[in-house]
Amino acid sequence: MTRPLPPREGRDALTPRPLSVQRAVNPHAPGSAHLKLGRTEILATVSVEDKPAPHMRGKKEGWLTAEYAMLPRATTDRQARERNLQNGRRHEIQRLLGRALRASIDLRHFRNQTLYVDCDVLVADGGTRVASILAGYAALHDLADRLIHAGKLTEWPLTHVVGAVSVGLVGDELRVDLDYAEDKVARADLNVVATDAGLLIEVQGGAEEGPITHAEYVRLLTVGVEATGGLLRELNRQL
Length: 239
Hints:
Structural class: alpha+beta
Distance between the termini: 47 Å
Helix content: 25-40%
CATH class: Alpha Beta
Number of helices: 4
Subunit structure: Homohexameric ring arranged as a trimer of dimers.
Protein name: Ribonuclease PH
Family: Belongs to the RNase PH family.
Mean pLDDT: 93
Largest sheet: 5 strands, mixed
CATH architecture: 2-Layer Sandwich
Catalytic activity: tRNA(n+1) + phosphate = tRNA(n) + a ribonucleoside 5'-diphosphate
Enzyme class: transferase
Strand content: 25-35%
CATH topology: Ribosomal Protein S5, domain 2
Radius of gyration: 18 Å
Oligomer: single chain
Number of strands: 9
Order of helices and strands: EEEEHEHEEHEEH
CATH superfamily: GHMP Kinase, N-terminal domain
Strand order of the largest sheet: 1-2-3-5-4
């Protein structure tokens, strides 16, 4: 018996969920953003520490690292706070965020400094890691804009506009930006991290219910890059 596919709630298969972003939402952080992607909500903040990361001492550039956490009631059931515990999923997402956001910035502008990008999931409905990349980039944009206007930087430090989207095969249908209900039943899914110019940074994911064809994978990747570009155009419009 074929199981029914989750509905798309007013959008077609290739349309991402509505995106909205607000900058400068945290008065204490030099860069911050609150981003919504459908019902998923992320709060991202950037902190700048005037201290190099140990492995960057004596180098010409600074370092950027990212942390990710989910609030206890971000999901339908309460999750215990991780506090100092580090589970595998969180560690994997943090490494992805760090790699993606480092690709967006020229860290030579932050020599002997460390940038910390904290992404906290306020509400989770699928796509939290891709939404965190979008929110993290928006928070870095906020930081860069403030530093330029304060005269602390004379050159724009962001070299690439970076974002991400999830794509998946739900039944035989290719869908963009999966919510939780779709992600649960997808037979294959990818998280595509790319620039607004279509340059790839990273791809994560794979098949869930048996192998997929080369053509299906290429189609997922192609649509993911196109959808990321669309999300970034909307993000830039709001920034």
